[in-house]
Amino acid sequence: MKVVAVGKDVDSFEKALMSYGLEIDRKNPEFVFSYGGDGAILFSERLYPGVPKVTVRCSSKCNRCEFDPDDIKSTVDRLKSGKYDIKEYMKIEADFNGKIVVGLNEVQVHNKLFTKAVRFNVYLDDELLYENVIGDGVAISTPFGSTAYYTSLGGDKFEKGIGIALNNRHEWVNPVVASETSVVEIEILREDAYLLYDNDEEGKILLKKGDRVSVRKHDGVAKFVV
To answer: What is the CATH number of the domain that holds 180?
Structure first.
């Protein structure tokens, strides 16, 4: 069985996997062991989208980790014998001028400078949802990400749909959960902003006045061993 590990101290962790009879394959793994916390899960999905993830806790903060390090041998045994299930989660994509970025937790439009609020409109299925918002931006969340940054913006966990939460706007508005078939569009009215997705620090895209970003369900899904 071909696997790869992503996260913290992967060299020693992969040696342990090999000692249990697994082969390390960084190009075409059958399973990806995410070793760390929630950030490692997001990183592993970016590196190996759609490949089943085995999420192993190596952090005090990992709400989505399924396995503990002490359970690795038994986990490997179950993989080899096929005694596991796969749970799928939807992802979302943001399209800016033909450039597509994909998020498992969320995509955001966020003000570039913390000293300047960004002004923007939010449309839901071509209908104006929020007009002339003044704030730090907006987060568009998946069900998987509804327990993450979306929660800090006042949202509640949800199991299906696309969550829309405004970030530090001038007037409080409750987050909205739209259908997973919906399309959300953000129009920048004033000041610069960044398009962000999950925890990718290098992938941010600069947005300027007049720019539009559309967000919708991604065709691919994230897969997790449970």
So the answer is: 2.60.200.30
